Amino acid sequence: MCHVFTYLCIGQDIFLAGVDTGAITMIWAMTELARNPRVMKKAQEEIRTTLGLKKDRINEEDIDKVEYLKLIIKETFRLHPALPFLLPRETVSHVKIKGYDIPPKTQIQLNVWRIGRDPERWTDPEDFIPERFTNSCVDFRGQNFELLPFGSGRRICPGMPMAIATVELGLLNLLYFFDWRLPEGMVSEEDIDMEEAGNLTIVKKLPLQLVPVQRHL
Ligand code: HEM
Q: Which residues make up the binding site for heme (predicted)?
């Protein structure tokens, strides 16, 4: 299939791999930040202290300076992988897993959404705690099986470097230049709806509504 964008086809569904997934990740990251003012404040303090208050644009080099933002993105990938299931795999030979016999040519569906919330692997799995990745070598580049938002092995997402740069730059801009308030009529951040929708990709069911307040330069 040839197009300026890359399409993935799974069964009868087609989705725009390169655009949708990055936007989904940014929406979930902003949703979690709005729901967790402590994390939002810490992120903005780090960003503004590190970059200073006088920049009129963010450069790619700035990304390397903001460590906490990277932890936030990791935590977003853990709780909200854009694709809940990886591309289907097939066993090439007989394998035994936890006492179960899996014959050759069995289709395997890997639910990374569930793995990211597995209480046997994560402490307080439902909570958004970027600090869990401080001094941790767990990364999302396909080597740590508890965190596989981009998959792993030969079929790992080829757009990963572009995706990460897009999400990092996007969030960095949103957090550096703007403060974020709840919309009129919403009294508490706990009122932000977290319901998910979709099957191929997991999107936020209701649109996220926040009010940007421009920080004075
Ligand atoms: C946050 C953004 C993104 C996420 C979370 C994501 C996630 C994934 C995942 C989970 C897979 C399946 C990997 C596997 O089964 O092991 C995949 C495959 C793929 N992704 Fe992404 N992706 C993102 C962005 C992108 C971008 C920006 C592009 C292209 C510019 C892209 C192109 C592809 C392609 C072509 C495949 C299929 C690879 C194959 O068939 O072997 N993705 N992606």
A: 157
